[in-house]
Amino acid sequence: MKAIRRFTVRPVLPEPLRPLSDLARNLRWSWHPETRDLFQSVDPERWAASDGDPVRLLGSVRPARLAELAEDRRFLRRLTAVCDDLNDYLTGERWYQAQPDGLPAAIAYFSPEFGITAALPQYSGGLGILAGDHLKAASDLGVPLIGVGLLYRHGYFRQSLSRDGWQQEHYPVLDPNELPVSLLKEEDGSPAYVALALPGGRRLRARIWLAQVGRVPLLMLDSDVEDNDPGERGVTDRLYGGGSEHRLLQEMLLGIGGVRAVRTYCRLTGHPAPEVFHTNEGHAGFLGLERIAELCDEQRLDFDSALEAVRAGTVFTTHTPVPAGIDRFDRELVAHHFGTDAELPGIDVERVLRLGMETYPGGEPNLFNMAVMGLRLAQRANGVSLLHGQVSREMFSGLWPGFDPEEVPITSVTNGVHAPTWVAPEVFRLGARQVGAQRAEDVLSLGGSERWDAVADIPDQEVWDLRRDLREQLVQEVRSRLRASWRQRGAGTAELGWIDSVLDPDVLTIGFARRVPSYKRLTLMLRDRDRLMELLLHPERPVQIVVAGKAHPADDGGKRLVQELVRFADDPRVRGRIVFLPNYDMAMAQKLYPGCDIWLNNPLRPLEACGTSGMKAALNGCLNLSVLDGWWDEWFQPDFGWAIPTADGAGTDPDHRDDVEAAALYDLLEQRVTPRFYERGRQGLPDRWIEMVRQTLMRLGPKVLAGRMVREYVERLYAPAAVAHRALDADTARELADWKERVRASWQQVTVEHVETSAAAATAELGSTLALRVHVRLGGLGPDDVEVQALSGRVDSEDRITEAVTVPLKPAGGADQEGRWVYEGPLTLDRTGPFGYTVRVLPAHRLLASAAELGLVAGPSQELVEAAGVLMR
């Protein structure tokens, strides 16, 4: 029989054990071994049954056991020590507090998903795990972040397989009272709410749940409240589910409701108000509209002035390298949810629409693009690896017409991973024996080292013994999960004896685990099944492969890829050497990364924005075998991994490309990877393999840390955004908005009319200097409104300047009788070979973050270019 109502009965802890509740409610336990060890000692069997979740553990421990622990002086001493350690962590000065004055008092960080721990399943993949690692690293560094997200009642789906290998989705109901979260309450003890206005006079209300991630509060909005109609109650039902209107309401709640939740939290707790707002992907882009509405209401600013003030303090991070990965909504749907009869009635709907419409060549004019809005509402933007920054500048270059992609104001901060979460305890202990536990913890949490040279002193035998131990643990984990999976698929006990011999702790183990969109090419390894079988079953140098990953519930193509892989892995000839594990999540990942020898990644380049799973593997001494995409393109060196050659030239047939790249993968495994793993030196150890493991830890380890990433965000994006935010008071914001309006109105009259140079011939010597003299018309603008530049450098076969050097030119006197200005300056010929130059005029203002910010540029006419003569050679 099913219960007609469900509620949670909380245990009453004896007074000496009350601090256990505080420890369970701060998610630092998810990356702090001593706290987890303490909870495990409460009841090891129930700890395992609760999947390492302290809240579930405390809800299931027998009262007699709690009474026993309340009298156990040794346990109480451990409890006191762990509580004191947490208090020191929460209140002591950390990296951020030691920085010079001027950093933001607080930063609000918005994301549609957060992967903190498997006990709080509010994530689907890399975006959420990255957001969780960002919060944890910010906590370790003392960065005053406030996280903002949604609390999904079903989270993301759980995955199982049918008998024939087809993905099945399950959406278990999550009771917030059984999660490590608490309700944010008003001073009178009632729940705090935020509300959105919906068309037709309806309202969407949401409670605010608080998850404490170390020092960082994470606010999560939940629409499943009784005051809402059934449709509104389901807005936060599941992550990435529902149709367009459902997604739009989720993103309005995240962005607009999220800002209101932050204001409520700061009012109730006294937390400093954020000076910087960071949106992790475009899903939260509506936060900028809410802040514009605040300024229009509170400071009586007009829309354009409020827009400038909001942009100054906003950071936007894009994570997708393909337009299809961005949320886009029909213009009419967005218009329906804003304006006088809906949300933000004080803002003209056309102004809202203008922020997100694809009004550029190649755009679809009837679609509202969340990433486009995010870029227009943020003065600072970044991709998540060096290559992804380049791809993003090209993808969004239409927003900055007239500028080459390399000048588009989108920088990059390469992702990192939170080492205390992802490094296996055995790996940490090995490092702690070398440098001490506290130093090892600081190195992993705070970052800052260029190299981890202490790794060089770890004996080869210890490295190899550790790798073998981790591989053996993975083998046991795989067998346990595989047995459970086959039972779900309908197999009986008598059919499953073969699972006891699946995988071998002495065989080279390859891991491949990630989401299953087509570009990640889950089944590339199956391209030549005979060659793969030879690799798996080689008599002297076999390999074994552990695969995991979820396809989106609506992606039947992805599900077919999963089924194809599963059916191959079900083949009795190879099932001892290749397995597919369903329901890939954080708990599985934490076993998988350390236990693999090779982490495989074979996306279509350059469609992997970053790809942080290989970073987590590297921190555990696993070597990467990957296409040069994302972070691997940036940091690959043959000392610590292998690069799969790509056939990504223009016009390459997709099938041919897969054939070529799969063949390259097989070649690498056959000729370079497996021989190195199995060859033995004088001591009977694979000396060259161990050295690659050592180089991975020494040289790659410090780079892939989330601590390094968050420090870069602070120094390169948050700090400048805070300075810009403070500079844009009401009067200054009006001044900047008025100036931009005047510049845009006058820009059609800005022209370059004539260019003179002192060069008399088409050749010149290296190091010589030319004198440039440029005549420009500025229309209604003056020299203070613009910068006239000379750009020079080598030119390609189509006369395009590459690696341009920019030199500002100076006005020579005032305007002539016809209103023309003369600008002059030197042009140094600092490179040999074909050399060219051009000139241009850009808007200039002290409050612009980039000369390209307005997307305005004036250059020589085509006639003037053709009349300028030959290039310098």
From TrEMBL:
Its cofactor is pyridoxal 5'-phosphate. Keywords: Allosteric enzyme, Carbohydrate metabolism, Glycosyltransferase, Pyridoxal phosphate, Transferase. Its EC number is 2.4.1.1. GO terms for biological process: carbohydrate metabolic process. It is an enzyme of class 2 (transferase). Belongs to the glycogen phosphorylase family. Phosphorylase is an important allosteric enzyme in carbohydrate metabolism. Enzymes from different sources differ in their regulatory mechanisms and in their natural substrates. However, all known phosphorylases share catalytic and structural properties. This is glycogen phosphorylase.
